[in-house]
């Protein structure tokens, strides 16, 4: 133990060095101080509301005191050998307190319940603060969640029974290994902690992840277009174009053969094309939403026509790729462009009036600060977006890995989804600023106020058939928000809600029979009423979608081989752009 404590101090010195190195070189990333200042300001506004009414403060303190007196009483009973009902219990899905000693040992049970009572009380202080505007209240909830997650007794050796046992059993060797990994992760993050969530050495793009056969048939400054090799003799005449999000990489739809949506589509007799966005740098600073429309979707449509001779395609847009697709469809409606004959949206918002939890990061002050930071480099660092997504679920995506890696000293296991999650991308300054201001901040698209290429956009003029997929537990594009957006289109919309969340609800192959999906009437009226009347179906929504797609254009032709058209292959799928690290 003594030797390991000495080694622990040595590794702690390496942690400090990894943190200080970018500062000494003048390469330290900025923004952390601004974020901390914003948190203090927001929580200060909550405190102001309580200070203005001393009677309410007394009542709030009395409530917490009563809970703690009940906890003390129950703990004393247990210490005396008497049974006692818990004052508060963690949620069933809360894995932090799964170890049996959190319940069986009176002291750890007390620590756990004291933490839960304090967290619940802090949350209630935000909820009961009077005269707070909705955005400030949402941000206060978010910050309280971050603080509560960080202060959980499960995150500290002295207050976590499992960590105590492991540390004593290993004579502190686990802490030495953990400190070594901490130093490595801070160095990998350029002075900021980049928590590893998966064993990244276990994956190589194009070797055991993103392996569906195909060819890159077109490339420009911001996209590579992949055409996948057929696996059937006949295919639908109308090709399929997938527009993935550029906030992360396209191979979420091609993780492995068992989970690959792209491979499954090919097996259903579709000619599949997929955009692979560039991982931008300072050269792409001025690439805006219109650039992504013209050099992204329009360039892909032109390439598909050259490759197949087809003038019309079916299109899929995922998340922000779907928002771009929605904007593009409105522009195409304004210019009488009919090259996209039907559209599918995966967890996509076009109406942001009830946007997801990411809206806590969006207001005029925060956008201005972000724009100033992006102006220095020409892009938003991919780690910033990855960190924002992780902060939406801090217990699952931050602290569980911090405990496992740095306190238990266990390297994370190989998991393709988390490998993808950590493979972040940068955002061009002009594009990201336009998206935040026009969509999240001002919600211009569904208001009919957004302009692209000199055209005022109106989603009501988009009359092509639409399949709009939401997921029930989505915290990024809530099902209600997707439902509201469905009502903005002028043509027939099939609204479908899948089980699970933003990723697992989409990447849900039929072979797994893991989740369910709901279908129902037209997306009209209140979302709650639609849900009450919706019909539940077991398993994946994928077969339901492909049946819908086949109804739009059932004609078949001989399967197309990448490179047989006017465009010759540039390289094998998945291409080069997807391999560029942030």
From TrEMBL:
Gene3D superfamilies: alpha/beta hydrolase. Residues 93-265 form the Poly-beta-hydroxybutyrate polymerase N-terminal domain. Residues 268-506 form the AB hydrolase-1 domain. It holds the Pfam family PhaC_N. Keywords: Acyltransferase, Cytoplasm, Transferase. It is found in: Cytoplasm. The keyword Acyltransferase applies. It comes from the Bacteria. The keyword Cell inner membrane does not apply. Its main location: cytoplasm. This is Class I poly(R)-hydroxyalkanoic acid synthase. The gene is phaC.
């Amino acid at each position: 133990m003594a030797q390991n404590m000495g080694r622990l101090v040595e590794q702690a010195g390496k942690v400090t060095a990894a943190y200080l190195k970018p500062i000494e070189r003048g390469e330290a990333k900025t923004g952390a101080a601004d974020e901390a200042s914003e948190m203090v300001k927001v929580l200060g506004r909550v405190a102001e509301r309580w200070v203005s009414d001393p009677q309410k403060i007394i009542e709030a303190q009395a409530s917490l005191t009563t809970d703690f007196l009940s906890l003390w009483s129950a703990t004393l009973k247990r210490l005396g050998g008497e049974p006692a009902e818990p004052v508060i219990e963690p949620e069933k899905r809360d894995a932090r307190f799964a170890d049996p000693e959190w319940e069986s040992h009176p002291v750890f049970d007390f620590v756990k319940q004291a933490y839960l009572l304090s967290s619940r009380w802090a949350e209630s202080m935000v909820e009961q603060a009077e005269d707070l505007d909705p955005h400030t209240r949402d941000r206060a909830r978010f910050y309280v969640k971050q603080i509560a997650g960080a202060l959980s007794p499960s995150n500290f050796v002295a207050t976590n029974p499992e960590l105590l046992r492991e540390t004593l059993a290993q004579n502190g060797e686990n802490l030495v290994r953990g400190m070594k990994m901490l130093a490595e992760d801070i160095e990998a993050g350029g002075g900021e902690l980049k928590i590893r969530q998966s064993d990244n050495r276990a994956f190589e793009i194009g070797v055991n992840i993103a392996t569906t056969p195909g060819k890159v048939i077109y490339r420009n400054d911001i996209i590579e277009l992949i055409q996948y090799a057929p696996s059937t003799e006949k295919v639908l005449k109308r090709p399929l174009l997938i527009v993935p999000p550029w906030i992360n990489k396209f191979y979420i739809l091609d993780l492995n053969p068992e989970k690959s949506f792209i491979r499954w589509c090919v097996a259903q007799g579709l000619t599949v094309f997929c955009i692979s966005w560039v991982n931008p740098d300072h050269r792409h600073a001025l690439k805006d939403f219109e650039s992504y429309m013209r050099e992204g979707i329009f360039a892909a449509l032109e390439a598909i026509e050259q490759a197949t001779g087809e003038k019309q395609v079916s299109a899929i847009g995922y998340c922000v790729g779907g928002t771009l697709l929605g904007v593009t469809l409105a522009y195409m409606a304004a210019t009488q462009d009919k090259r996209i004959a039907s559209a599918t949206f995966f967890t996509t918002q076009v109406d942001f009036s009830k946007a997801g939890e990411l809206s806590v990061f969006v207001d005029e002050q925060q956008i201005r600060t972000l724009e100033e930071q992006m102006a220095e480099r020409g892009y938003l660092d991919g780690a910033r977006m990855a960190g924002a997504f992780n902060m939406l679920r801090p217990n699952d995506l931050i602290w569980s890995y911090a405990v496992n890696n740095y306190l238990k000293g266990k390297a994370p296991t190989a998991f393709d989804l988390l490998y993808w999650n950590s493979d972040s991308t940068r955002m061009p300054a002009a594009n990201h600023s336009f998206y935040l201001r026009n969509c999240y901040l001002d919600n211009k698209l569904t208001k009919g106020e957004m302009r692209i290429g000199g055209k005022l956009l109106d989603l009501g003029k988009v009359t092509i058939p639409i399949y709009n997929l939401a997921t029930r537990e989505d915290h990024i594009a809530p099902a209600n928000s997707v439902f509201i957006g469905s009502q903005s289109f002028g043509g027939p919309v099939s609204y479908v809600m899948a089980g699970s969340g933003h990723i697992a609800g989409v990447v849900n192959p039929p072979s797994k029979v893991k989740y369910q999906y709901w279908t129902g009437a037209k997306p009209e009226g209140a979302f709650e009423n639609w849900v009450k009347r919706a019909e539940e179906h077991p398993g994946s929504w994928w077969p339901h979608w492909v049946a819908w797609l086949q109804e739009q254009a059932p004609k078949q032709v001989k399967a197309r081989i990448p490179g047989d058209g006017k465009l010759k292959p540039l390289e094998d799928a998945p291409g080069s752009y997807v391999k560029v690290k942030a």
